[in-house]
Amino acid sequence: MDEQMEADLIALTVLSPRGRRDVVVRPDVRVGQLSDALDAGNARSATPLRTVTGDPLARDARLGSVVHSGDTLVTAPDEPAAGAPRGRPGRRPGGRPGGARPGGRGARAGAGVGPFGRRTGTSGASGLSGVLAAPTVPLAWAGVGLLVLAVAARLLDLAAPGGPRPWLAGGAGALALAIALLPVQRGPAADPVAAACWLAGTLAGASVVGPDTGAGLMLPVTVGLLAGTVASALRVIRAGGGGDALARVLLAVGGVGALGGVVAVLLERPYPAALLLGFVPLALRAAPAVSLDVPDPVLLDPEPAQRTALGVRERIDPAPASVRARTVNAVVSDAVHRRAVTVVVLALAAALLATVAAVLLPAGTLERITTATLTFAVALALALVPRRDRDAVTRWAPRAAALLVLAVAVAVALVCGVSPVALAVAALVAAAIAVGVAAASARDWRSLRASRLADAVESLAVVLSPALGVVAVGTVGLLMELPS
């Protein structure tokens, strides 16, 4: 009986300007009762409870229906209405110091305001939506669009032998160098500059060589990716220690793509698009971890650990005397923006690589079946990995790419000889499951078993994708040819 009662209890962590409190309550306790108990002894009225994302909890709602055991809640006053009189800054209504200050201790976590005082969903750092709404960058994005058209036109021109165009290569190279040396801004305003720099470098590289070199389009595309990577590297060097998140992402993704092109040209084999596609789910899972960049001296004192000959010669960055809220807000905002940019670039890369893998479909039966299985697994990973995201960009960009990858998977399966009737039945079953899940989610349905099943399917897709990519590029046949 005691074990049953303990299993029914809910453990919560409540953060407030006065500190942290860990409480254990019954599921039938109402939110208002918990708020009154936490504010017992205060002269002012009870402070409403909110989730860490700023969503308010109704006072008459039962805790068992709105939270789960282990969740974190915050106490913050409601946002004052427009035109409402404000109190004296730094003072609470009861005359006590420590009123909510933006970015300081007791920062508001009101409706649409995150735990660090940053408005979620409307801030420019919460995704690419801030870039589209920023009034200072539409001309830059227009230039990016023109460069995209120029790169596409050049690739179409390379499809028909026309020879290199030195004037186009020189002009695009000079443009890429000029953009790379522009002053660096932090946040979404730097994204169009980084995109234009990479596109201009890619156009310059693709214009150096023509398609009549024996390698077809492979060599111009590879040289273009190498030139774009160099342009992004110059932009990253110009940025120094911070800023220009898109340039860093393009440097990494473009470098990996260029490396695949170099290997294909040297081995005289098709571009390993399936191999790179297999590693996209892993990169998508690793995006949150690599996006947060916290200096080492903030977390630990590196001096006692530096006992090597090279370590003692390095310059030690002094640890800050205190960590300010403004610094924390800047780090979190940069991390959120960097993650949004990374997810969007990976989604675009997945769609492009899946298309290329379908176009360069190998002749072997094993490779074709593996390519179809790979595209299905990547589509599952792209659809399930963003389940935990709250930002609209990071949630729907991979899912939009998953639709295209799924269409490619169906096309490859048809080429492999799969019955159209079987694919139609599978599509109907998948559509029924999707409709059921969407309807249940709209009604705020939660199921631990369904969540664990989705976690298992997601982990299986992420783990199997790299192995399927290795087989899909014909590694088995290449190994069989080595002894001969």
Describe this structure in words.
There is one protein chain. Strand 1 and strand 2 form a beta hairpin. The chain is globular. It has 18 helices and 4 strands. It is mostly helical and 484 residues long. The termini are far apart. The protein has a 4-stranded mixed β-sheet with strand order 2-1-4-3, covered by helices on one side.
Q: Which characteristics define this entry?
A:
57% helix, four-stranded mixed β-sheet, 4 strands, mainly alpha, 18 helices, disordered N terminus, globular, 484 residues
Helix and strand content put the structural class at mainly alpha
Order of adjacent strands in the largest pleated sheet: 2-1-4-3
Low-confidence stretches: 1-5, 78-136
As a percent range, the share of strand residues is: under 5%
Helical residues, percent: 55-70%
- How many β strands by DSSP? 4
Short description:
The chain has 484 residues and is mainly alpha-helical. The protein has helices at 2-8, 31-38, 63-66, 129-133, 138-159, 166-180, 191-206, 218-239, 245-267, 273-278, 280-291, 296-299, 325-359, 365-384, 392-415, 420-442, 448-472, 475-481; strands spanning 10-16, 19-25, 49-51, 72-75.
